[in-house]
Amino acid sequence: GPFRKLMKSRMADSEDLLLNKAKEDQTGNRIVKVNSGKHYFCGYCAAITNIAVTFPIQKVLFRQQLYGVRTRDAICQLQKDGIRNLYRGILPPLMQKSTTLALMFGLYEDLSSVLLRHISAPEIFARSLAAVLAGTTEAVLTPFERVQTLLQDYKHHDKFTNTYQAFRVLREHGAREYYRGLVPILLRNGPSNALFFGLRGPIKQCLPEATTYSTHLINDFICGGVLGAMLGFMFFPVNVVKARMQSQIGGEFQSFSTVFMKIWVERDRKLTHLFRGAHLNYHRSLISWGIINATYEFLLKLL
């Protein structure tokens, strides 16, 4: 019908624009069209959609990362907490993740544009640098990830009941307390962004050619899901250390290596114990990043 024809036309126009962002002008200089306001908006909406669907899975995963328990035990903990506490702590990730993904996609496009215009390095280097810088900028929102960790930890249930109280408790320990666990976040964000944006195109090209709206959506889901699952598994130990560091309130600020070695010893120096919960993280990331990438590309085509 007319709607399908319109959608195909918009999809074709959008793909042509994305494929030709970096090109040569008449003077031989690379130019990049900048219209990234929509990239921020699409990233923001994709994050909200994803969190609403996957938050309960994330809570199970968090318990495994923090305490090294089995999946069944983590689920039993949530059952004991009750349905009332199932979505406890969702406000910080809604605020943090939606803003983070808006920055991730939007800043990547903006920074890629600036770097492609002003440096003579290869395009792959400029785009990788843009991805790392975008990931580093996202770390400004660490306080929200910090509070989310505290709200999901049942050991702190009696200390505060909502996001505001958690922020107030941390304030008593100084501004630095908000950024506990910053190092693992920096180690994770930059490299994972570079790999995500660098591999997204090649992976999609390996998939069967999309000829309809639905196949485009499926390809985007598969592409985002595969990348998310792969990167989630790769950086899983970093997130384990982050969870341990951020579950602490007050006291000494320990280095990344110190906390890692403590966890390594506690878990009998076994890699399988360090990756406990990684299989659930793999499936959560597969669904989560599939939703994010598909929603992002869908909204981008509509706009």
TrEMBL record:
Q: Where in the cell is it found?
A: Mitochondrion inner membrane
Q: Name one Pfam family in it.
A: Mito_carr
Does the keyword field hold Repeat? yes
Q: Which GO terms describe its molecular function?
A: NAD transmembrane transporter activity
- Keyword Membrane recorded: yes
Superkingdom is Eukaryota
Q: Which GO terms describe its cellular component?
A: mitochondrial inner membrane
Gene3D superfamilies annotated for this entry? Mitochondrial carrier domain (1.50.40.10)
- Where would I find the Solcar repeats? 34-114, 122-206, 219-302
Entry keyword set: Membrane, Mitochondrion, Mitochondrion inner membrane, Repeat, Transmembrane, Transmembrane helix, Transport
An example GO BP is: mitochondrial NAD transmembrane transport
Question: Its topology with respect to the membrane?
Answer: Multi-pass membrane protein
Entry similarity comment: Belongs to the mitochondrial carrier (TC 2.A.29) family.
Know the name of this protein? Solute carrier family 25 member 51
